[in-house]
Amino acid sequence: MEMETYKRNLKNILMKKILFAKVLVVFLTLLGFHQNASSQTEVIDKGHMILNVGIGAGNYISHPGYSVKLFPFVASLEYGIVDMFDSRGGIGIGGYTSYTLFGAKDKNRLNQKVSDLIVGVRGMFHYQFVEKLDTYAGVMLGYDVVSFNHPDSTLSGSTFRPGIFAGVRYYITNNFGVFAELGYNTAPLELGVCYEF
């Protein structure tokens, strides 16, 4: 009975997350199609912001005896502070967050969960080599907040988590696009959608 309740609760959580992601993608797509063509240069402009929302493929975080139940949901917001190289380059700063959920592998402890919430600040350098493609690299100073719903002395606590990464954003419309990042954030690869405003 407890196992069925756990599975039902996990299924409900996953369905809500999937529905939220779909609604967000549709909303950002509609916003992107209605923006003015002159407002986008494919590289972050001074005073503009870019929102990334996506998921992580793989995971650098692990806890012995636990497996991933929910792959990382990631989000970042960047603010352009400097234009460079005739607006083909720029520097931005911003924030980053990710959330990952783990569950115990032992069948007798299926209701035991561990979550990791990473929050951090990032600095990025951009340069546009190809039209509609924003290429960038950066560093992150972050903190991993570990929480669990049961006592477990084998679990490590919250810790400082630096990061380094490189990424690309491809703009489908003037403000809306897709992104991919490789590096040491939460996951080796992060994929999702982006919106500049």
* Global morphology: elongated
Largest beta sheet, briefly? 8 strands, antiparallel, barrel
Work out the strand percent. Answer: over 45%
Helix proportion: 10-25%
CATH architecture: Beta Barrel
Number of structural domains:
1
Structural classification: alpha+beta
Q: Tally the beta strands.
A: 8
Order of helices and strands: HEEEEEEEE
List the total number of helices. Answer: 1
Distance between the termini: 49 Å
CATH topology: Porin
Report the CATH C-level class. Answer: Mainly Beta
> What are the low-pLDDT stretches, counting only 5+ consecutive residues below 50?
30-40
User: Whole-number average pLDDT?
Assistant: 83
The largest sheet has its strands arranged as: 1-2-3-4-5-6-7-8
Radius of gyration: 19 Å
How would you describe this structure to a colleague?
The chain has 197 residues and is α+β, with helices and mostly antiparallel strands. Helix content is 16%, strand content 55%. It has one helix spanning 2-33, and strands spanning 49-57, 66-84, 89-104, 113-130, 133-148, 159-171, 176-184, 189-196. A hairpin with a 4-residue loop joins β2 and β3 (89-104). The chain is elongated.
Brief write-up:
The protein has one domain (2-196): Porin, CATH 2.40.160. The protein is 16% helix and 55% strand. It is built from 1 helix and 8 strands.
